[in-house]
Amino acid sequence: MLKLLQSIFGGVTEGNYPEWLVKAAIERAVDGTDPCLRAVSGYKKKLRPAILKSIDHVVSLVDRLPVPMTISRNSFGDVPRLKAFFVSPDDMQKTFARDQNLAAYLRGAGETPLQVFALLAMEKRENTILGNEISGELVMRDVPQVSVSFEAHRLVDPTGSEEDTRRQLKRRAFDHLLSLALMRISIVKSTREQLGRHRELLQAKRNLLERGGWGFNDSDSSEKLDVTGVEKQLADIEASLLELGGDDSMFDTYLNILVDVMGNPETYLWASQETLTLDSMGIKRDQGAFNTSELTLNELFNAEGRTLVVALVALPGGVVG
Protein backbone atom coordinates (compact mmCIF):
# COMPACT_ATOMS: atom_id res chain seq x y z
CA MET A 1 0.00 0.00 0.00
CA LEU A 2 2.82 2.41 0.87
CA LYS A 3 4.55 1.84 -2.48
CA LEU A 4 1.25 2.32 -4.30
CA LEU A 5 0.64 5.64 -2.59
CA GLN A 6 4.18 6.79 -3.34
CA SER A 7 3.44 6.14 -7.01
CA ILE A 8 0.45 8.49 -6.90
CA PHE A 9 2.82 11.39 -6.48
CA GLY A 10 5.40 10.41 -9.07
CA GLY A 11 5.26 11.33 -12.74
CA VAL A 12 1.66 12.56 -12.81
CA THR A 13 0.14 15.96 -13.32
CA GLU A 14 -2.42 17.52 -11.01
CA GLY A 15 -5.83 15.92 -11.51
CA ASN A 16 -4.47 13.10 -13.71
CA TYR A 17 -4.32 9.95 -11.57
CA PRO A 18 -4.76 6.30 -12.59
CA GLU A 19 -7.96 4.82 -11.19
CA TRP A 20 -6.28 1.96 -9.34
CA LEU A 21 -4.00 4.42 -7.55
CA VAL A 22 -6.96 6.56 -6.45
CA LYS A 23 -8.54 3.43 -5.01
CA ALA A 24 -5.29 2.71 -3.15
CA ALA A 25 -5.35 6.22 -1.68
CA ILE A 26 -8.95 5.72 -0.51
CA GLU A 27 -8.04 2.48 1.24
CA ARG A 28 -5.00 4.12 2.83
CA ALA A 29 -7.24 6.88 4.18
CA VAL A 30 -9.51 4.28 5.78
CA ASP A 31 -6.64 2.20 7.17
CA GLY A 32 -5.01 5.36 8.52
CA THR A 33 -8.08 6.44 10.48
CA ASP A 34 -10.52 3.61 11.27
CA PRO A 35 -10.76 0.39 9.21
CA CYS A 36 -14.29 -0.06 10.58
CA LEU A 37 -15.35 2.73 8.19
CA ARG A 38 -15.60 -0.01 5.58
CA ALA A 39 -18.83 -1.00 7.33
CA VAL A 40 -20.45 2.19 6.01
CA SER A 41 -22.38 1.52 2.83
CA GLY A 42 -20.81 3.29 -0.16
CA TYR A 43 -17.76 4.53 1.75
CA LYS A 44 -15.60 4.50 -1.39
CA LYS A 45 -18.06 6.63 -3.34
CA LYS A 46 -18.39 9.09 -0.44
CA LEU A 47 -14.63 9.38 0.03
CA ARG A 48 -13.56 9.58 -3.61
CA PRO A 49 -14.15 13.33 -4.29
CA ALA A 50 -12.50 14.28 -0.99
CA ILE A 51 -9.47 12.07 -1.62
CA LEU A 52 -9.00 13.50 -5.12
CA LYS A 53 -9.14 17.01 -3.72
CA SER A 54 -6.54 16.17 -1.08
CA ILE A 55 -4.21 14.64 -3.64
CA ASP A 56 -4.51 17.73 -5.83
CA HIS A 57 -3.82 19.93 -2.79
CA VAL A 58 -0.66 18.19 -1.61
CA VAL A 59 0.69 17.91 -5.15
CA SER A 60 0.24 21.65 -5.62
CA LEU A 61 1.59 22.42 -2.14
CA VAL A 62 4.88 20.63 -2.72
CA ASP A 63 5.31 21.57 -6.39
CA ARG A 64 5.13 25.26 -5.44
CA LEU A 65 8.22 24.96 -3.22
CA PRO A 66 11.16 26.80 -4.84
CA VAL A 67 14.13 24.93 -6.26
CA PRO A 68 16.51 23.52 -3.64
CA MET A 69 18.95 25.86 -1.94
CA THR A 70 22.48 24.51 -2.35
CA ILE A 71 24.22 24.32 1.01
CA SER A 72 27.94 24.22 1.68
CA ARG A 73 30.29 25.66 4.22
CA ASN A 74 31.96 27.80 1.57
CA SER A 75 28.71 29.37 0.40
CA PHE A 76 27.49 30.25 3.90
CA GLY A 77 28.56 33.89 3.77
CA ASP A 78 27.00 34.44 0.35
CA VAL A 79 23.51 33.10 1.14
CA PRO A 80 21.49 35.46 3.39
CA ARG A 81 18.98 32.77 4.32
CA LEU A 82 21.73 30.49 5.63
CA LYS A 83 23.12 33.31 7.77
CA ALA A 84 19.64 33.86 9.17
CA PHE A 85 18.87 30.18 9.72
CA PHE A 86 22.19 29.33 11.45
CA VAL A 87 24.48 31.15 13.85
CA SER A 88 27.66 30.19 11.99
CA PRO A 89 29.06 27.65 9.50
CA ASP A 90 30.12 25.49 12.44
CA ASP A 91 26.60 25.62 13.87
CA MET A 92 25.20 24.62 10.48
CA GLN A 93 27.62 21.73 10.11
CA LYS A 94 26.92 20.43 13.63
CA THR A 95 23.18 20.66 13.02
CA PHE A 96 23.34 18.45 9.95
CA ALA A 97 25.90 16.10 11.51
CA ARG A 98 23.48 15.22 14.33
CA ASP A 99 20.34 15.06 12.19
CA GLN A 100 18.84 11.59 12.70
CA ASN A 101 16.88 11.50 9.44
CA LEU A 102 19.99 12.32 7.43
CA ALA A 103 22.07 9.75 9.33
CA ALA A 104 19.43 7.05 8.78
CA TYR A 105 19.26 7.79 5.06
CA LEU A 106 23.04 7.71 4.63
CA ARG A 107 23.27 4.39 6.50
CA GLY A 108 20.77 2.84 4.13
CA ALA A 109 22.06 4.47 0.96
CA GLY A 110 25.06 2.20 0.56
CA GLU A 111 27.46 4.32 -1.47
CA THR A 112 27.70 7.95 -0.45
CA PRO A 113 25.52 9.94 -2.87
CA LEU A 114 26.90 12.96 -4.66
CA GLN A 115 24.04 15.06 -3.29
CA VAL A 116 21.30 14.66 -0.74
CA PHE A 117 18.03 16.51 -1.16
CA ALA A 118 15.69 17.15 1.76
CA LEU A 119 13.25 19.59 3.27
CA LEU A 120 14.83 21.75 5.94
CA ALA A 121 12.16 22.49 8.56
CA MET A 122 12.57 25.00 11.40
CA GLU A 123 10.60 26.92 14.00
CA LYS A 124 10.80 30.72 13.83
CA ARG A 125 11.03 32.66 17.09
CA GLU A 126 10.50 36.40 17.48
CA ASN A 127 11.46 38.08 20.74
CA THR A 128 11.35 41.70 21.83
CA ILE A 129 14.68 42.85 23.23
CA LEU A 130 16.25 46.16 24.19
CA GLY A 131 19.11 47.37 22.01
CA ASN A 132 20.92 50.41 20.68
CA GLU A 133 19.77 52.49 17.72
CA ILE A 134 21.74 55.16 15.85
CA SER A 135 19.80 58.27 14.86
CA GLY A 136 22.03 60.75 13.09
CA GLU A 137 24.92 61.31 15.47
CA LEU A 138 22.97 60.10 18.52
CA VAL A 139 23.06 56.62 20.01
CA MET A 140 19.75 55.74 21.65
CA ARG A 141 19.89 52.99 24.25
CA ASP A 142 17.29 50.48 25.44
CA VAL A 143 15.23 50.76 22.26
CA PRO A 144 12.71 47.90 21.80
CA GLN A 145 13.75 45.67 18.91
CA VAL A 146 12.42 42.42 17.45
CA SER A 147 14.98 39.64 17.24
CA VAL A 148 14.32 36.76 14.84
CA SER A 149 15.90 33.33 15.30
CA PHE A 150 15.35 29.81 13.97
CA GLU A 151 15.29 26.70 16.15
CA ALA A 152 14.62 22.96 16.09
CA HIS A 153 16.18 22.43 12.66
CA ARG A 154 15.62 19.05 11.06
CA LEU A 155 15.86 17.47 7.64
CA VAL A 156 12.71 15.78 6.35
CA ASP A 157 12.63 13.02 3.70
CA PRO A 158 16.28 13.06 2.58
CA THR A 159 16.83 11.22 -0.72
CA GLY A 160 19.30 11.15 -3.58
CA SER A 161 17.15 13.21 -5.94
CA GLU A 162 14.90 16.25 -5.83
CA GLU A 163 12.11 14.29 -7.52
CA ASP A 164 12.15 11.55 -4.87
CA THR A 165 12.15 14.06 -2.03
CA ARG A 166 9.21 15.97 -3.51
CA ARG A 167 7.31 12.72 -4.00
CA GLN A 168 7.88 11.67 -0.39
CA LEU A 169 6.87 15.11 0.84
CA LYS A 170 3.57 14.81 -1.03
CA ARG A 171 2.93 11.46 0.61
CA ARG A 172 3.87 12.95 3.99
CA ALA A 173 1.47 15.87 3.50
CA PHE A 174 -1.33 13.45 2.54
CA ASP A 175 -0.64 11.38 5.66
CA HIS A 176 -0.58 14.54 7.77
CA LEU A 177 -4.11 15.32 6.64
CA LEU A 178 -5.07 11.79 7.67
CA SER A 179 -3.50 12.35 11.09
CA LEU A 180 -5.57 15.51 11.57
CA ALA A 181 -8.71 13.59 10.64
CA LEU A 182 -7.74 10.80 13.03
CA MET A 183 -7.25 13.33 15.81
CA ARG A 184 -10.76 14.71 15.29
CA ILE A 185 -12.21 11.20 15.18
CA SER A 186 -10.34 10.29 18.37
CA ILE A 187 -11.75 13.34 20.14
CA VAL A 188 -15.29 12.35 19.17
CA LYS A 189 -14.65 8.76 20.28
CA SER A 190 -13.24 9.92 23.61
CA THR A 191 -16.16 12.28 24.15
CA ARG A 192 -18.62 9.49 23.37
CA GLU A 193 -16.90 7.17 25.86
CA GLN A 194 -16.89 9.83 28.60
CA LEU A 195 -20.55 10.63 28.00
CA GLY A 196 -21.36 6.92 27.99
CA ARG A 197 -19.66 6.38 31.35
CA HIS A 198 -21.37 9.44 32.81
CA ARG A 199 -24.71 8.15 31.50
CA GLU A 200 -24.19 4.79 33.22
CA LEU A 201 -23.40 6.49 36.54
CA LEU A 202 -26.47 8.72 36.29
CA GLN A 203 -28.68 5.79 35.37
CA ALA A 204 -27.46 3.89 38.45
CA LYS A 205 -28.06 6.97 40.61
CA ARG A 206 -31.54 7.41 39.19
CA ASN A 207 -32.40 3.77 39.89
CA LEU A 208 -31.25 4.12 43.50
CA LEU A 209 -33.24 7.28 43.99
CA GLU A 210 -36.36 5.79 42.45
CA ARG A 211 -36.10 2.81 44.82
CA GLY A 212 -35.58 5.12 47.77
CA GLY A 213 -32.20 3.57 48.41
CA TRP A 214 -30.03 6.65 48.11
CA GLY A 215 -30.06 7.37 51.85
CA PHE A 216 -30.71 5.48 55.08
CA ASN A 217 -34.27 6.73 55.44
CA ASP A 218 -37.34 6.55 53.26
CA SER A 219 -37.25 8.71 50.15
CA ASP A 220 -38.02 12.33 50.95
CA SER A 221 -38.92 15.34 48.84
CA SER A 222 -35.31 16.42 48.33
CA GLU A 223 -34.45 13.04 46.83
CA LYS A 224 -37.50 13.24 44.53
CA LEU A 225 -36.30 16.60 43.34
CA ASP A 226 -32.86 15.05 42.73
CA VAL A 227 -34.43 12.41 40.52
CA THR A 228 -35.79 15.19 38.33
CA GLY A 229 -32.31 16.73 38.10
CA VAL A 230 -30.76 13.40 37.18
CA GLU A 231 -33.38 12.88 34.48
CA LYS A 232 -32.51 16.29 33.04
CA GLN A 233 -28.79 15.44 32.97
CA LEU A 234 -29.52 12.12 31.29
CA ALA A 235 -31.62 13.86 28.66
CA ASP A 236 -28.77 16.32 27.99
CA ILE A 237 -26.28 13.46 27.63
CA GLU A 238 -28.58 11.58 25.25
CA ALA A 239 -28.91 14.74 23.14
CA SER A 240 -25.12 15.15 23.06
CA LEU A 241 -24.60 11.51 22.09
CA LEU A 242 -27.21 11.83 19.36
CA GLU A 243 -25.42 14.91 18.01
CA LEU A 244 -22.13 12.98 17.96
CA GLY A 245 -23.82 10.07 16.22
CA GLY A 246 -25.92 7.36 17.80
CA ASP A 247 -24.64 3.83 18.24
CA ASP A 248 -26.19 2.89 14.91
CA SER A 249 -24.59 5.78 13.03
CA MET A 250 -21.27 6.44 14.75
CA PHE A 251 -19.23 5.13 11.81
CA ASP A 252 -21.15 7.45 9.50
CA THR A 253 -20.10 10.27 11.83
CA TYR A 254 -16.45 9.22 11.67
CA LEU A 255 -16.60 8.91 7.88
CA ASN A 256 -18.11 12.40 7.65
CA ILE A 257 -15.17 13.74 9.66
CA LEU A 258 -12.71 12.08 7.28
CA VAL A 259 -14.61 13.43 4.26
CA ASP A 260 -14.62 16.92 5.77
CA VAL A 261 -10.86 17.01 6.39
CA MET A 262 -9.82 15.42 3.11
CA GLY A 263 -12.44 17.39 1.17
CA ASN A 264 -11.25 20.73 2.59
CA PRO A 265 -7.47 20.20 2.79
CA GLU A 266 -6.68 23.89 2.36
CA THR A 267 -8.28 24.67 5.75
CA TYR A 268 -6.22 22.01 7.54
CA LEU A 269 -2.80 22.33 5.87
CA TRP A 270 -1.65 25.34 3.89
CA ALA A 271 1.40 27.40 2.92
CA SER A 272 2.26 31.06 2.57
CA GLN A 273 5.26 33.31 2.14
CA GLU A 274 6.60 35.98 4.47
CA THR A 275 9.18 38.62 3.62
CA LEU A 276 11.51 39.81 6.38
CA THR A 277 14.25 42.42 6.39
CA LEU A 278 16.97 41.47 8.89
CA ASP A 279 20.33 42.92 9.77
CA SER A 280 23.43 40.80 10.48
CA MET A 281 22.34 40.34 14.11
CA GLY A 282 18.92 39.00 13.16
CA ILE A 283 17.08 42.21 14.11
CA LYS A 284 14.01 43.20 12.09
CA ARG A 285 14.58 46.43 10.15
CA ASP A 286 12.64 48.57 7.73
CA GLN A 287 12.85 47.59 4.11
CA GLY A 288 15.90 49.08 2.42
CA ALA A 289 17.71 49.84 5.67
CA PHE A 290 21.52 49.89 5.61
CA ASN A 291 23.40 46.58 5.91
CA THR A 292 20.29 44.38 5.79
CA SER A 293 19.05 41.44 3.75
CA GLU A 294 15.53 40.81 2.52
CA LEU A 295 14.46 37.21 3.07
CA THR A 296 11.47 35.42 1.61
CA LEU A 297 10.39 32.58 3.89
CA ASN A 298 8.13 29.69 2.97
CA GLU A 299 5.90 28.69 5.86
CA LEU A 300 3.63 25.71 6.45
CA PHE A 301 0.60 25.92 8.75
CA ASN A 302 -1.85 23.35 10.04
CA ALA A 303 -5.22 23.56 11.75
CA GLU A 304 -3.69 22.65 15.11
CA GLY A 305 -1.77 25.95 15.20
CA ARG A 306 1.61 24.54 14.18
CA THR A 307 3.87 26.68 11.96
CA LEU A 308 7.13 25.69 10.31
CA VAL A 309 9.57 27.57 8.11
CA VAL A 310 10.64 25.22 5.32
CA ALA A 311 13.14 25.19 2.45
CA LEU A 312 14.21 22.53 0.00
CA VAL A 313 17.97 22.04 0.29
CA ALA A 314 20.73 20.16 -1.53
CA LEU A 315 23.69 18.95 0.53
CA PRO A 316 26.95 17.70 -1.00
CA GLY A 317 27.27 14.01 -0.19
CA GLY A 318 25.02 14.38 2.83
CA VAL A 319 27.71 16.24 4.74
CA VAL A 320 28.28 20.01 4.70
CA GLY A 321 31.85 20.41 3.57
Question: Topology, please?
Answer:
Layout: H1 2-8, H2 19-33, H3 43-63, E1 69-70, H4 80-85, H5 89-97, H6 100-108, E2 115-135, E3 138-159, H7 162-210, H8 221-244, H9 250-263, E4 269-279, E5 292-302, E6 307-316
Parallel strand pairs: 1-6
Antiparallel strand pairs: 2-3, 2-6, 4-5, 5-6
Helix pairs in contact: 1-2, 1-7, 2-3, 3-7, 3-9, 7-8, 7-9
Alpha plus pi helix count: 9
Percent of residues in helices = 40-55%
Number of E-state strands: 6
Proportion of strand residues: 15-25%
Please report the distance between the alpha carbons of the first and last residues. 38 Å
Q: Describe the largest sheet.
A: 6 strands, mixed
The whole-angstrom Rg is: 28 Å
**General form:** globular
From N to C, what is the helix and strand string? HHHEHHHEEHHHEEE
The assigned structural class equals alpha+beta
- Poorly predicted runs are 213-217, 221-225
Average of per-residue pLDDT values: 83
Structure description:
The protein is of the alpha+beta class. It has a domain at 183-263. It is built from nine helices and six strands. A hairpin with a 2-residue loop joins strand 2 (115-135) and strand 3 (138-159). The protein starts with a helix and ends in a 5-residue tail after the last strand. The relative contact order is 0.18.
